[in-house]
């Protein structure tokens, strides 16, 4: 999911940030006199509602390519077009880790009715990339029943890691929003995906008052084998209203962790979620400092999380002949369980795990994510969701 | 139509497929079963199932049998998250039950009915295999996934033995069982069977939603949320809702399959954590060890008990 942030004048992102813009960014004639921007980006594109396969749409698609250059993950291509803006800070993570941080932002602070944003990202073999946002994605009210749309297509190479860890989507009253994220992985690719939504400006009383929210997350293995197909639709045309279905919860979140690099994190997360939920009682929320907001059902938990493994059983085979002292063994890869000829050196485990969370406050989910994804810090160079005030 | 001894072969086992396979492999066809095969083969030759009125009337008997809870498909094994909802206090009284069941029906319609429909309109093995794999990836909740696979394989096992006029069911089952490439999820198998038997599209999809409603209400009875009579009243009250949901979600392609109740999914996943019953049929079986006959036993129990306040109402 792409983040939206409010960009005021020159990027006030701190002295350590520099904006890399790709010299191959195309100059486009501004069709409606769009502002030149302050960071060297020139031109703007008008949004059309053609199908994604059209040539026009292909030109407007944001693109990021991360490749292994001299042993380091490097962005070799970066293109973005209104209403999407990509920022690649140099020092988002520690210099010891090999990871590229990509911030996706928008002009004007949110997605307006009819906007269509698309991004294609490719992570090369052995690389690590993080796609995130600066603030929650606000979707403004729909005008003329138009739907706003965001599309992300990601390819993750062998032994590579992609972490998509954005802020939540917040749809305002009468908004219509649809997002589709498609990930194509190899058996040894790793993926962290966080996709979440809040009910609106719920502190102001706007709770689940949008007209349409659709989110599709499709993960494919080895080109076309479906691994994880999740599609959520919340709309007003059902028998029960969205608010009734949500039973007082204001935030719905989903965390997907897949791939061999993150085996320990998966195991740890499953254990922690199980412990958290089995120790439940009306007071078990005190670790997260949450006040229950329920009036009619005081015994219901302010945050519930459930964990499910998915995907084929995975076993590991190590090529010992590639071992050279001082170098990591090459050729560590996964093979699907059904091949009878493989040698199993590690206990089988499902390829991925999905955690679903429902909570009454956005803050509690930030705390949950910060706490349980902290183990990603060595991979990403910084812990996800660690910035204060979020 | 004969309801022959096949049911005895299936009814005793809690462990599902393995024991059954061994037993049925050892048994040769009884005289009655061979008669049944001959009977259906004759019917096949005499009537054109798709068009002939007599054929359609004969189909009704198959339809009713497929919807009958007596059919040993293990429908009682899955509580559709009701058990977890009770434990986490999302459903605390009969008043919470009706909206919960409506959400289950809506989620079934939006997520699973497209799979039933797509398997129905193209009831060949290649299409079924594709849908089966897709549903395995779509059912991201482990509890639902396991329940669907166990229900589907039980249904296929029964259908392969009962509907002998469709030999491809048995062939398919023999080909894919143990291969590791098929999961036997319930929705595609249901659609496949209906398609091969020649039911009409509307009926097939309504039947699927009916069996879901029947099973979740049955689970509510077993969880003592509602008495058997109250359950029947509730089921009748939910009929217009189920009809609306069927009309809304029927005839959709699988690309449009989606969840409309994400909170339900979150709650359903909680059941696995507590290890109370990842496969609830174990627990139900121990409580109602003789309940091959499901509702009959319950009715006998409730006849002995004094009617509760709910039932008096």
Automatic annotation (TrEMBL), chain A:
**Keyword annotations from UniProtKB, A to Z:** Chaperone
Which Pfam family, an example, fits this chain? Answer: UreD
This one is known as Urease accessory protein D isoform X1
Q: Can you name one GO molecular function term for this protein?
A: nickel cation binding
Q: Does the keyword Chaperone apply?
A: yes
Is the keyword Chaperone assigned to this protein? yes
Chain positions covered by the region annotation Disordered: 18-45
Q: Which domain of life is it from?
A: Eukaryota
Q: What is the lineage of its organism?
A: Eukaryota, Viridiplantae, Streptophyta, Embryophyta, Tracheophyta
InterPro entries (UniProt xref): UreD (IPR002669)
Automatic annotation (TrEMBL), chain B:
Q: Report whether Transmembrane shows up as a keyword of the record.
A: no
What InterPro entries does the annotation carry?
Answer: UreF (IPR002639), UreF_sf (IPR038277)
A molecular function GO annotation: nickel cation binding
Concerning Pfam families, the annotation shows: UreF
Which keywords does this Swiss-Prot/TrEMBL entry list? Chaperone, Nickel insertion
The family line of this record is: Belongs to the UreF family.
In Swiss-Prot or TrEMBL terms, this protein is called Urease accessory protein F isoform X1
**The organism of origin for this protein:** Canna indica (Indian-shot)
């Amino acid at each position: 999911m792409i983040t939206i942030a409010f960009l005021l004048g020159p990027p006030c992102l701190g002295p350590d940030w520099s904006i890399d813009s790709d010299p191959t960014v195309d100059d486009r004639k501004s069709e409606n006199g769009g502002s030149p921007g302050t960071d060297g980006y020139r031109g703007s594109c008008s949004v059309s509602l053609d199908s994604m396969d059209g040539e026009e749409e292909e030109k407007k698609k944001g693109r990021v390519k991360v490749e292994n250059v001299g042993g380091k993950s490097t962005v070799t291509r970066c293109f973005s077009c209104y209403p999407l803006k990509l920022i690649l800070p140099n020092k988002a993570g520690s210099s010891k880790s090999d990871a590229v941080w990509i911030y996706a932002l928008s002009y004007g602070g949110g997605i307006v009715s009819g906007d269509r944003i698309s991004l294609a990202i490719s992570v090369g073999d052995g690389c690590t990339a993080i796609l995130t946002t600066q603030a929650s994605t606000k979707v403004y009210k729909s005008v003329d029943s138009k739907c706003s749309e965001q599309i992300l297509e990601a390819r993750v190479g062998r032994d590579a890691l992609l972490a998509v860890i954005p802020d939540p989507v917040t749809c305002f009253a009468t908004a219509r929003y649809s997002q589709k994220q498609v990930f194509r992985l190899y058996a040894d690719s790793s993926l962290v995906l966080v996709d979440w939504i809040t009910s609106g400006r719920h502190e102001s009383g706007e709770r689940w008052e949008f007209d349409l929210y659709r989110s599709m997350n499709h993960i494919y293995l080895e080109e076309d084998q479906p691994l994880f197909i999740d599609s959520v639709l919340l709309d007003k045309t059902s028998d029960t209203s969205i608010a009734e279905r949500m039973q007082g919860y204001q935030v719905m979140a989903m965390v997907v962790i897949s791939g061999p690099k993150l085996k320990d994190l998966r195991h740890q997360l499953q254990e922690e979620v199980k412990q958290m939920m089995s120790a439940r009682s009306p007071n078990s929320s005190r670790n997260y400092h949450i006040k229950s907001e329920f009036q009619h059902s005081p015994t219901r938990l302010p945050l519930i999380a459930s964990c499910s493994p998915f995907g084929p059983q995975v076993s590991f085979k190590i090529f010992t002949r590639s071992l050279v002292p001082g170098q990591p063994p090459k050729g560590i890869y996964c093979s699907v369980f059904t091949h009878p000829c493989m040698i199993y050196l590690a206990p089988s485990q499902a390829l991925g795990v999905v955690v679903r969370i429902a909570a009454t406050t956005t803050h509690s989910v930030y705390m949950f994510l910060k706490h349980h994804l902290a183990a990603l810090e060595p991979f990403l160079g910084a812990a996800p969701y660690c910035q204060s005030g979020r | 139509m004969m309801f022959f001894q096949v049911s005895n072969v299936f009814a005793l086992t809690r462990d599902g497929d393995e024991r059954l396979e061994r037993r049925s492999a050892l048994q040769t066809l009884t005289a009655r079963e061979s008669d049944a095969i001959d009977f259906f083969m004759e019917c096949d030759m005499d009537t054109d199932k798709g068009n002939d009125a007599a054929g359609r009337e004969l189909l009704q008997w198959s339809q009713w049998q497929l919807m009958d809870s007596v059919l040993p498909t293990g429908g009682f094994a899955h509580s559709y998250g009701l058990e977890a909802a009770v434990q986490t206090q999302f459903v605390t009284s009969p008043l919470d039950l009706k909206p919960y069941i409506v959400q289950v029906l809506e989620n079934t319609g939006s997520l699973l009915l497209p799979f039933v429909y797509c398997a129905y309109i193209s009831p060949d093995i290649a299409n079924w295999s594709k849908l089966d794999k897709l549903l395995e990836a779509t059912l991201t909740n482990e509890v639902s996934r396991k329940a669907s696979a166990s229900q589907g394989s039980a249904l296929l096992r029964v259908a392969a033995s009962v509907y002998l006029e469709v030999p491809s069911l048995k062939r398919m089952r023999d080909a894919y069982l143990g291969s590791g490439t098929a999961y036997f999820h319930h929705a595609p198998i249901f659609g496949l069977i209906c398609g091969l038997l020649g039911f009409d599209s509307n009926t097939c999809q309504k039947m699927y939603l009916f069996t879901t409603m029947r099973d979740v209400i049955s689970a509510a009875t077993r969880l003592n949320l509602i008495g058997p009579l109250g359950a029947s009243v509730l089921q009748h009250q939910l009929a217009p809702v189920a009809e609306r949901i069927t009309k809304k979600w029927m005839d959709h392609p699988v690309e449009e399959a989606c969840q409309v109740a994400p909170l339900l999914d979150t709650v359903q996943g909680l059941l696995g954590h507590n290890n109370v019953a990842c496969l609830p049929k174990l627990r139900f079986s121990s409580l109602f060890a003789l309940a091959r006959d499901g509702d009959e036993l319950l009715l006998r129990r409730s006849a002995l008990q004094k009617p509760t306040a709910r039932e008096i109402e």
